[in-house]
Amino acid sequence: MKKIINFIGFGLLFFALISGETRAQSIQKVEPVNWWTGMKNPKLQLLVYGKDISAFEVSANYPGVKIEGVQKVESPNYLFINLTIAPETRAGKFMLEFRKTVQVKNGKKKAVDQIVKISQPYELKVRDKKPQEITSKDLIYQILPDRFANGDPSNDKFPDMADPLADRSNPFLRHGGDLQGIIQHLDYVQELGATALWLNPVLENNQFQTNEGGSMRSSYHGYHFTDLYNVDKRLGGNDTYKKLIDAAHEKGIKIIQDAIYNHIASNHWMMKDLPMKSWINQWDTYTNTTYRDEPLIDILHGSASDKKIMESGWFVPALPDLNNKNELVGNYLIQHALWTVEFFGIDGWRIDTYMYNDLEFMNRCNEALLQEYPDMFITGENSVSNIVSQAYLSRNNFNVPFKSNLPSANDFVLSNAISDALNNEFGWNKGFNRIYSTLASDMIYQDANRNMIFLDNHDIDRFYSVIKEDLSKFKMGLGFLLTTRGVPQIYYGTEILTKNFKDPSDAEVRKDFPGGWAGDKENKFLAAGRNAKENEAFDFVKTLANFRKGSSAITTGKLMQFTPESGIYVYFRYDNNQTIMVILNQNKDEKVVESSRFSERTTGFTRARNVITKTDLTDLKTIRVAGMSVTVLELQK
Asked: So where are the chain's domains?
């Protein structure tokens, strides 16, 4: 009887030990969280995170899925599993089997080998997303979600998040704008004439407030990622993001997601347990980037150490700098980008802090996206002031060792030229000659018509303030933006004359859109809520934006510009079906433009239709243009 009791006791002890071991062993994350059959690249690398998971062997029994290898790293809590998914593989669920041997001692101190197993489900889905092409036919409307409209006040704040506050009276805290608010105002976007939305980052920012300039600030802007596979629940989460994309697509509006490959937030889940030291760029002492683009392009005279600091120095102390030279890091980021397109159905990417990444990695990332989605719009933020740097960091015609494959540049050089042109009197290198000379250098791009062009965005002063709140200059700037080459982008509120400088902080150019919150005194989403000047500005943009939708000359035609003379700048957009003549007059008084100078493009045309005023011009020989104005004419025979 004693032996039986001892045997039972040992059995219970053994069961407890094994059960305890099994409970301790759990998988917390597998990323990507799912994948798809039919991808052109059959390779998939899974990041698996769980306590001491590296001690396990891994297997999978599913037709078409083969484990090619498993990589262990410095942290015992990670495994990287390399899979190949054969082209004929069917969608479905299967188990990743994790197995290891443990030794359990019996009552006589003898060790007994026992097997611990973990089964982790994984799913391959049917690939069904077809991103819509974003081109110069589109008009992009940029929205900072937290500051646009609050469609669901119940998700404004959560006590379990690192930053649990929301307060509209504080410019540095979250204000409660969300994706549901954008859904509720898609008709406004459509009315304006925009055909694509670029949203500032929507991914989880479970980040503590940081002290910037003596003030505690939240990451309401979205650039402090803490989880790549979850949309921030204060914006509505993954389900609402899908709902927004579907609703936008139903209205013919495309979605551009804001990507960051350069850094994560200090409260990112990985920062609590890095896979390896080299997952981020480490320095003996904190090293900030210099923010200088010259070390990247100065292939004749540049310093290697300057280039390293530029690329690998941290953007700010609260944002650990990802080492995307590390192949595992690169794979992780690239697969997330691919997953996002397939999971959510987005149509394009705007890449933040592009030039601070390893540029070879960026080429690899762009190539992976374009392999799966050949027409995908990918535009990169390189906030530079010279056209050589801007072209070098995108597809160009330079004969240099490194060749960027970035399809589209955020055209900061042209943006600066427009503001300078409108704020300075006409001269040899001033006024409209700034724009003229900038466009004259377009030959260095492979295709300048892919550049995303803009007047302002969330990082720079509001355009209306830059031009000293001059409505005539506003119309000239927007008139040029909507008729020149490139893919135009308008920052939310610009169309209703939203103003402010970045003084004392960026928050001043990120004000709430009036009418986006219940109880707002003004609702500028409606004509009745806008004053006369705001309606004049809105109607100007609306008229021209909706006209360009059907204008083959503006959206896909060629551009011919003529040397500005006496404060008059004339250019044409044209193809075999249509010719558009644009006249910008920088003089304060009316001028007469003799069309004979532009006979290369006007020959054969006898009259014109003014696109903005919708009036007819019966004589093209002499064209009267008002002072400080833009005139857009559709030439007719």
From this structure: 2-126, 140-416+449-549, 556-636
